TrEMBL record:
Protein name: Heme-binding protein
Pfam family, one: HbpS-like
Domain of life of the organism encoding this protein: Bacteria
Gene3D superfamilies xrefs: Haem-degrading domain (3.30.450.150)
Matches recorded under SUPFAM superfamilies: GlcG-like
Signal peptide: 1-21
Residue ranges of the region described as Disordered: 137-158
Length: 158
């Protein structure tokens, strides 16, 4: 929980505005369920396969807890750990992790002090009913490719 507060606070301090704030009591529409995570992961696997990439995909809830994790054949075990960190960071900050990476690269290294966060592209928040309900992290390609797969997996509702 402390990681979530630190990342969200750091993002806010940089003027990076999250997609939406999570409600105190989420409605059914504003929750990420296993079936939702499975659908998202299926689309991510399809996008990765089309790009001929072997990646790890992790989907977390708004607290950064893993709902679903998958690692394609030939994807490294390190990809799984990084995908989880990307997903949790995106859920906590409410922005794509590439924006945080850009902030670090533009002279905001203090973001790197947040324990367990990933300041590299490939993490995208998941938004439902105007609320952040989780995050997806993809790792195994370049940060740009990882983010592309994550974004494609969410489709227009993402």
């Amino acid at each position: 929980m402390m990681r979530i507060l630190l990342v969200a606070g750091a993002a806010a301090g940089l003027g990076i505005v999250p997609a939406a704030a999570a409600p105190a009591e989420p409605s059914d529409q504003a929750m990420l369920r296993l079936a939702d995570a499975q659908s998202i992961a299926t689309r991510a696997l399809q996008a990765a396969t089309e790009k001929q990439m072997n990646v790890a995909i992790v989907i977390v809830n708004r607290e950064g807890r893993v709902i679903l994790a998958q690692r394609m054949d030939d994807a490294s075990f390190m990809n799984m750990a990084l995908a989880e960190a990307k997903a949790a960071t995106a859920a906590a900050a409410g922005v794509q992790t590439s924006l945080l990476e850009d902030a670090v690269n533009q002279g905001k290294p203090s973001l790197l002090s947040v324990p367990g966060s990933a300041m590299i592209g490939g993490g995208v928040p998941i938004v439902r009913a105007d609320r952040i309900v989780g995050g997806i992290g993809v790792s195994g390609g370049s940060p740009k490719d990882d983010e592309s797969i994550a974004t494609e997996s969410l489709g227009p509702q993402g």
